[in-house]
């Protein structure tokens, strides 16, 4: 177990250390795990938010009006239609600002407050969702980096595509699972 942990750590840390089928070697081609880890470290927070917002817009559905990350109660109209306010990851359903969202429709009290639901991120599930988003963005950027792709072996390119497809499939589910705190008036 100790040797396995050391080998896994080496594969994450060293640029040119490779493992294939239980065999380990150094080559002049970069280690895909290390390349991904380095790219993950350089992903900016604004890219994470932009990607999260884009995915949320895709998975929000059409069953009700959806308002992504409202900044004030005026951002969500007070009408008879059923509405869902998807809160920013830093907002909590329990916060006073969010409570204002449910009770005020701009400057006045919300008349149709029973038509508004809010959903927020479960605090304990955000780190895993954020890490998956960062990995997705990093792999997406790597696939677009022509210079790097030229240095990768065919097997590494296939592995990168496989990881990208898996993350593309799983990320919306992870995001929906993180947004599980429901609030209503």
TL;DR of this structure?
With 185 residues, this protein is of the alpha/beta class.
Write a structural description.
It is a single chain. Helix 2 packs across helix 5, helix 3 packs across helix 5 and helix 3 packs across helix 7. With 185 residues, this protein is an alpha/beta fold. The model has no long low-confidence stretch (mean pLDDT 86). Strands 3-4-7-8 form a four-stranded mixed β-sheet. The protein has a two-stranded antiparallel sheet with strand order 1-2. Strands 5-6 form a two-stranded antiparallel ribbon.
Low-confidence stretches: none
Helices and strands, in order, run as HEEHHEEHEEEHHHE
Counting DSSP E segments of at least 2 residues, the number of strands comes to 8
Binned, the helix content reads 40-55%
**How far is the first residue's CA from the last residue's CA?**
52 Å
Q: Into which percentage range does the β-strand content fall?
A: 15-25%
